[in-house]
Specification:
single chain; 331 residues; alpha/beta; 2-enoyl-CoA Hydratase, Chain A, domain 1; 56% helix; 13% strand
């Protein structure tokens, strides 16, 4: 009897052990399943709230692409006109911060992914307070002249490749860069602002006289007409006008060549050229102040409104032939 009781006890203990093992295994599996579910949910939530980096780069209005450690490319991709307003200025400043912070960058090329427009002009349809309310940049100036000054003072060499229209701030960015190359057939460059009743704000009054001479600067700024690539080259507004089919390969070859050179030699040479040719920073803010003051005058507002009614800021004939339309206004 004692033996049978012991055997029954052993079988009962064995059964309990098996049950305990099964319960422990089930608990482990449940915990693992829950953890996996939480991880999957977290990943799904993250995917819903954070678009893929590649998608963000493709849809960015201004793309920064390091082609190598020494050669970077900035591409304007804000169709249909590549108009720049306060939001785009902030994007440009962030990109400039990245370029300044990377000691390996030797050359930066600016170009456009929008057919027919390098950069149409500043956004005149946004409320003025959106521009006047922007915080000053590191130089103490408004972000527009601040960007132009910092761009021109970069250690890296800057090259602008102009295909399509570069008017107003588009021309001013090109002037702030070290070199400008234009499509002979497709480039249109201008400072149209006086024709629209106001003063240019991105510093061309400080740069153009030093670049092309006083008389031609007056013609560009006060004549306020369009210059094609060939005439821009003849005036010295751009370095060269190249056949459109050759523009990209020429600029890329030049940038690649510069990127292969000794960085210190490049930076030291650029600094000495800047000393001989750059306007003092103090000349930049007054231009922006004059722009803000002049664009609020009734005469300027009447001219701008007339252009808006004809199609300024929209794809069409006004933007394609801005120099002609600014001269059509009748008081």
């Amino acid at each position: 009897m004692a033996t049978e009781a012991a055997a029954v006890g052993d079988r009962a203990s064995e059964k309990l052990s098996r049950v305990a093992i099964l319960l422990a295994t089930s608990a482990t599996l449940y915990s693992s399943t829950q953890a996996f579910a939480q991880t999957t949910k977290g990943a799904a939530d993250c995917a819903r709230t954070q678009p893929p980096a590649a998608e963000s780069a493709e849809t960015a209005k201004i793309r920064l692409t390091p082609k190598s450690a020494a050669y970077w490319e900035v591409t304007f991709n804000n169709p249909p006109l590549n108009i720049v307003g306060p939001a785009e200025v902030r994007d440009l400043v962030k990109i400039l911060d990245e370029i300044e912070a990377d000691p390996k960058v030797k050359v930066v090329v600016f170009d456009s992914a929008v057919p027919d427009y390098f950069m149409a002009h500043y956004d005149l349809l946004k409320p003025l307070k959106d521009s006047t309310g922007m915080k000053p940049g590191p130089t103490g100036m408004h972000p527009v002249p601040d960007f132009m000054v910092r761009l021109s003072r970069l250690k890296a060499v800057t090259i602008v490749s102009i295909r399509g229209r570069a008017s107003g701030i588009g021309s001013e960015l090109a002037l702030a860069a070290d070199m400008r190359f234009a499509s002979r057939e497709k480039a249109i460059i201008s400072q149209f602002e006086v024709g629209a009743g106001f003063v240019p704000g991105g510093g061309p009054m400080a740069r153009l006289p030093r670049l092309v001479g006083r008389g031609r600067a007056m013609e560009i700024l006060i004549g306020a007409d369009d210059f094609n690539g060939e005439m821009a080259e003849r005036y010295g507004y751009v370095n060269r006008a190249l056949p459109d089919a050759e523009l990209d390969s020429f600029v890329d070859a030049l940038a690649t060549r510069i990127a292969s050179f000794d960085q210190q030699a490049v930076a030291d040479t650029k600094k000495l050229v800047d000393l001989a040719s750059m306007p003092p920073d103090a000349e930049m803010q007054p231009g922006w102040d004059a722009f803000i003051t002049s664009v609020q005058r009734p005469a300027a507002q009447a001219r701008v409104q007339a252009l808006i009614e004809k199609g300024l800021g929209q794809p069409g004939d006004v933007e394609r032939h801005l120099g002609q339309y600014t001269a059509k206004y009748k008081e």
